Amino acid sequence: MSTTKPVADAYALARDVYAALGVDTEASMARLDGIPISLNCWQGDDVRGFEQSQRPLSGGIAASGNYPGRASNAKELRSDLGLAMGQIPGPHRVNLHAIYLEADRPVERNEIRPEHFRNWVDWAEELGIGLDFNPTCFSHPLSEGGMTLAHPDPAVRRFWIEHCQASRAVSAYFGSRLGTPSIMDIWVPDGSKDTPCDRMKPRQRLLEALDEVIAERIDPRLHRDAVEGKLFGLGAESYTVGSNEFYLAYATSRKIMLCLDSGHFHPTEVVSDKLSAVLPFVADILLHVSRPVRWDSDHVVLLDDETQAIANEIVRGQAIERVHIGLDFFDASINRIAAWVIGTRNMRKALLRALLDPARMLAEIETSQDGTARLALFEELKSMPWAAVWDQYCLSRGVPVGLAWLENVREYERTSCARRG
């Protein structure tokens, strides 16, 4: 039996229910079409990349599990991403790390060039999507001491400065070819396992190195810089040079983007509460949406309370144009493509639910300081028929409804992934 009629019938009822609250469901879906989500390429290969010298993960990065079918080259990874995006409604972007270059010979990270990513750009151009970028300041012999841009050795520091500068050129190339600015996020693992005697000097070195990295002005229509802080990480439990406070001050003073990762704070802190606190001081925010379990463990995004709260803050705070959404998780214990689909669809569901808010009614209640009505409405919205609108959104955008996408992934797993070593 076709799913079209049941979905249409359920949607018609949902549309009327929302209309009674002053919500135009068609307009909400149209607004959702204007919010791209950047898929993290490293979910597809467990953050291994395609450098010819494969190195073990370091810098607090760890992928758990050994599910079969991992992408082992860029062609496989692009195929996997394409299959995943075909199961997810709405506009997409893809976020690359520097280690995902393609070259015929070994290329040191401070020598990466735009031509090493030409195949990625050709692919993105064909699909009509944007690309984002990240320098890879981990899993390298010169990062093994726990310091990169804050390293006390000027020669090591110079290497990582040059890598970040080269990464900016790649990012600008993405923007020039694809007609949409590439957001380049700088994250470094610099820190100390135990308490250092001097916390100031590494931060001063990091500040000076970052200033040198971003010294050359690049047209913001091509490239945007972002910096990403963290509470702590494996091997940096006692001291993180690039803390969230450091980067908030840096982004504000240098007028660049701040990246907020939902796994990079104390468990009692939530990114949803930070958005409105930071937006008055920075132009734009880059979000890395993840799911921390006790710490920054990068689990697949769920449609949980915090994911919904993040979406609510973006929509209710009228910050859709200023908050750029990317995902940051990697799980090698389950089908990697399914992880992309589950996580990204959940983020889109949360955004749709937020866009279905009766904004005018909520604003009137807030203005009148009617806490009773506000709480009652918030709770009632949780049981509204948003899922019927989501099914209609999927159907009308040509992607599978419900769990139908899973069989597409399973078939791809049988026919493509199973052949991989």
Q: Report low-confidence residues grouped into runs of 5 or more.
A: none
Q: Give the spatial strand order of the biggest sheet.
A: 3-2-1-12-9-8-6-4
Helical/strand content category: alpha/beta
CATH architecture: Alpha-Beta Barrel
Distance between the termini: 39 Å
Briefly say what this structure is.
The chain has 421 residues and is α/β, with parallel strands linked by helices. It is built from 14 helices and 12 strands. It has a single domain (4-419), classed as Divalent-metal-dependent TIM barrel enzymes (TIM Barrel, Alpha-Beta Barrel).
Set down the secondary structure blueprint.
Layout (H helix, E strand, L loop, with lengths): L3 H16 L5 H8 L4 E4 L33 H12 L6 E6 L20 H10 L2 E5 L19 H25 L3 E5 L4 E2 L7 H14 L9 E6 L10 E2 L3 H11 L2 E5 L9 H8 L6 E5 L1 E3 L1 E5 L5 H12 L6 E5 L8 H20 L3 H9 L3 H11 L4 H11 L7 H12 L6
Parallel strand pairs: 1-2, 1-12, 2-3, 4-6, 6-8, 8-9, 9-12
Antiparallel strand pairs: 5-7, 10-11
Helix pairs in contact: 1-13, 2-10, 3-10, 5-6, 8-9, 9-10
Describe the structure using short key phrases.
single chain, 421 residues, alpha/beta, TIM Barrel, eight-stranded parallel sheet, 43% helix
Describe this structure in words.
It is a single chain. This protein has helices at residues 4-19, 25-32, 74-85, 118-127, 154-178, 200-213, 244-254, 271-278, 305-316, 336-355, 359-367, 371-381, 386-396, 404-415; strands spanning 37-40, 92-97, 130-134, 182-186, 191-192, 223-228, 239-240, 257-261, 285-289, 291-293, 295-299, 323-327. The protein has one domain: TIM Barrel (Alpha-Beta Barrel), CATH 3.20.20.150. It has 14 helices and twelve strands. It is of the alpha/beta class and 421 residues long. The protein has an eight-stranded parallel β-sheet with strand order 3-2-1-12-9-8-6-4. The protein has a two-stranded antiparallel ribbon with strand order 5-7. The protein starts with a helix and ends in a 6-residue tail after the last helix.
